[in-house]
Design goal:
The chain has 19 helices and 16 strands. It has 623 residues and is α/β, with parallel strands linked by helices.
Length: 623
């Protein structure tokens, strides 16, 4: 971590920053974030634990969720005195209706918050002796959450399951009910009971690609190899249940996690009473453990949705984001909250006039309830649904292709088989060069050039295999290639290639008319390429020498146009132009924003220029 002042003040500084971002809160004792004006005559929810799990715990402080969070140093529990101070502030001199403490099942948290709970009970006895009853305003209850299903029963027989991201769902639902306790019929026992039902109905499992780095400690050697992942890794750098290599796909990881969470046959890990009869309903939480990209998190959500649908488990609500992290750990966890099928009555006598039933509708209402907590993500207030209308997309593409192909017919290749052979060879050459191109782009660009070119090349190869690239009309072939490139590549290079191919298709028509030829001769190709370059110049300011793909492309086209009978000479010119980009300052493209001295020192060619050269090199091999 680099964006800290001092490791010992990191948590306190972060809490101060949270208070600045949410002025309805304040920091006390440098360890506790609390709402500025705790409301009287209602129940409050207090949580806490070590730092390093942000946004948990303090960023969930806000109306409709938590009233306060007590933080320790990174991965270290706060002490009991800090917790007691928070209890005192929420007690409001007896004007509140009690406080519920929610903590993750880790030894330090349970001991320190438990000690604070016992001390509070001992110092707030009712007159005549005994502990406070349900109506006593000083009352405090404690709920410990353990939702990790990767821990076998035999291994956790004494300590129980670890508390993971399911804890945040306890915060949300219990906090939402606590916000309603200004209504006389709601009380602390009811809030506690909802919290227990949620905690006991949650299952979580996760994975990591590496240990996180704790501020103030030396950077250690990599715990995992680049092709390794650890299943069941804890949120304090605890080892998981096993390492796997190579890293499984998102679909395989999701399958393992959800299979374990929903299992009813694993004597060691079957914790939740799923029925698997098509009537199970859940809330899904996809959690970023700290270092996962948003695009990866959405992929995990998609795979989880598919898996649950296939297993006939209905997802009533879904949310994804960073909820319970492990600093910068690259990984994710999945949590399922199994909704109850029957109404559950609070198992203890309440003096209120009504009885609270805990059922799935109440839990969904509490999940949907509004909150001011800054870390709670937006969620759709209804059953989630994934709509990917691929059939409609295919129909539109087919229609567009049909409209294009019904236009002016272009010249035929002089040798149709050789035409496709040369095209395939060029595409395969780019695919083989992907690691090399990616390496160059990582040094002097944004690192995506190789994969982008590979995606376009593979897309055209697939289209050739499906007979979607005609070999009897070079114009129709270029139009079809342009459509594939536009669809598969995207980005700057995708746009340039698509425009270039579209310009080439138009240029070939004009060139064939100029030459009065029905065959795509070398002269027709040369003139068509020249017109295509002019088209490309309308949409990019890059001109050679600019350290872009335009350098070898222009060299090839202009050399070929000057002597269409000498293709080898033109390809050689393109190679030399691509090599020359090693010594050029970038005048266009993303490399123009990079330190030019760094690029010159690296002595690498422009990735886009190298891609053009590899295309031409592959074509030359076939010709």
């Amino acid at each position: 971590m680099t964006s800290i002042n001092e490791p010992k003040t990191a948590v306190a500084d972060a809490l101060a920053g949270l208070s600045y971002l949410n002025p309805d809160t304040k920091v006390v004792n440098r360890t506790t974030l609390i709402v500025k004006d705790p409301k009287p005559s209602r129940v409050h929810v207090l949580c806490g634990g070590g730092g390093g799990h942000e946004p948990a715990h303090a960023a969930f402080v806000g109306d409709g969720m938590l009233s306060a969070a007590v933080s320790g140093q990174v991965f270290a529990s706060p002490n009991a005195a800090q917790v007691e101070d928070a209890l005192r502030r929420l007690d409001l001199a007896g004007q509140s209706r009690g406080t519920l403490i929610v903590v993750k099942n880790y030894t330090g948290d349970v001991l320190q918050f438990g000690l604070a709970n016992e001390r509070w009970a001992a110092t707030h006895l009712v007159e005549g002796g005994g502990k406070p009853d349900d109506d006593d305003p000083h009352q405090v209850r404690l709920v410990v959450v353990g939702d990790d299903v990767s821990v076998p029963r035999s291994q956790g027989a004494l300590t129980g399951r670890r508390g993971l991201a399911g804890t945040v769902l306890v915060y949300k639902l219990a906090g939402a009910l606590a916000a309603q306790t200004h209504v006389p019929e709601h009380s602390l026992p009811e809030v506690e009971h909802v919290a227990r039902v949620v905690a006991e109905s949650c299952g979580t499992m996760g994975m990591g690609l590496e240990h996180c780095h704790v501020p103030g400690t030396e950077t250690s050697e990599a715990y995992l190899a680049q092709d390794e992942a650890e299943i069941g890794m804890g949120i304090h750098n605890e080892p998981g249940i096993r390492k796997v290599s190579p890293i499984p796909s998102a679909a395989k990881l999701v399958d393992e996690f959800l299979s374990t969470i929903t299992s009813t046959t694993d004597s060691e890990r079957s914790y939740l009473p799923f029925k698997h009869d098509g009537q199970d309903e859940v809330i899904l939480l996809v959690n970023n453990l700290g270092g996962l990209a948003e695009i990866e998190l959405s992929i995990v959500a998609k795979e989880a949705a598919k898996w649950l649908k296939q297993k006939r488990i209905t997802v009533r609500r879904a949310v994804a984001g960073s909820f319970m992290t492990s600093l910068n750990l690259p990984g994710f966890s999945l949590t399922l909250l199994l909704l109850p099928r029957e109404r559950v009555v609070i198992p203890e006598t309440s003096t209120s006039s009504s009885i609270l039933y805990v059922d799935k509708e109440l839990m969904l209402d509490l999940f949907d309830a509004p909150t001011d907590a800054p870390a709670w993500k937006w969620t759709f207030k209804g059953d989630p649904e994934m709509t990917v209308d691929e059939e409609e997309d295919k129909k539109k593409a087919a229609k567009a292709s049909s409209e294009q192909s019904s236009g002016v017919k272009g010249p035929k290749p002089s040798d149709p088989k050789q035409f496709l052979r040369a095209l395939e060879s060029a595409l395969k050459s780019v695919i083989a060069a992907e690691p090399e191109i990616t390496k160059y782009d990582t040094i002097a660009g944004d690192g995506d050039a190789g994969l982008t070119l590979k995606a376009g090349a593979q897309g055209i190869l697939d289209a050739i295999g499906e007979n979607k690239i005609p070999d009897d009309d070079v114009v129709a072939a270029m139009v079809a290639c342009s459509e594939v490139v536009e669809r598969e590549m995207g980005g700057t290079s995708g746009g340039l290639y698509a425009i270039g191919l579209s310009g080439l298709s138009k240029g070939l028509v004009e060139a064939a008319r100029e030459k009065d030829s029905k065959v795509a001769t070398a002269e027709v190709w040369a003139r068509g390429l020249e017109l295509a370059l002019n088209t490309l110049y309308r949409y990019t300011r890059a001109r050679p020498p600019s350290r872009t793909l335009v350098d070898p492309l222009a060299s090839f086209i202009l050399t070929f146009s000057s002597d269409p009978s000498n293709l080898t000479h033109a390809i050689k010119a393109a190679q030399e132009a691509a090599e020359t980009t090693r010594d050029l300052d970038a005048k266009a493209g993303r490399a123009a924003y990079v330190d030019q001295e760094k690029i010159r020192d690296a002595a690498v060619p422009d990735a886009g220029a190298w891609g053009v050269w590899k295309l031409l090199e592959g074509m030359q091999k076939a010709l």
